[in-house]
Write the structure tokens for this entry.
Amino acid sequence: MQELLEKDDINSEELELLLEARDEGKVDFLLVDVREEMEYNMGHIKGVDMLKPTTAFQQWAQELFDETKEKKVIFTCRTGSRSGQVQHVFQQHGHTGVLNHFGGIVTYHGEIEQ
């Protein structure tokens, strides 16, 4: 399971497996939703640790970057586009533990919370 966290991108099936493994204490990562609050409130992946809207990126990016330099972070959004952009910026600045949930919540078949 740890090998999935070494990739750049994961799909929805892999994210489901990782969330299950995290619940069992086998892996550790943060799942960060970068959609807007209105989108998040309409439904989000069960297991999301925090909401960090991309429209407020300038306000939260540096702090999250600094807090997670030694951690694995998976970014998710609606389709994987915004989360991929956030991942790219973090990687450009030297964060080696960021992954993009490719396909986003629209391809996710696991548990959704409202």
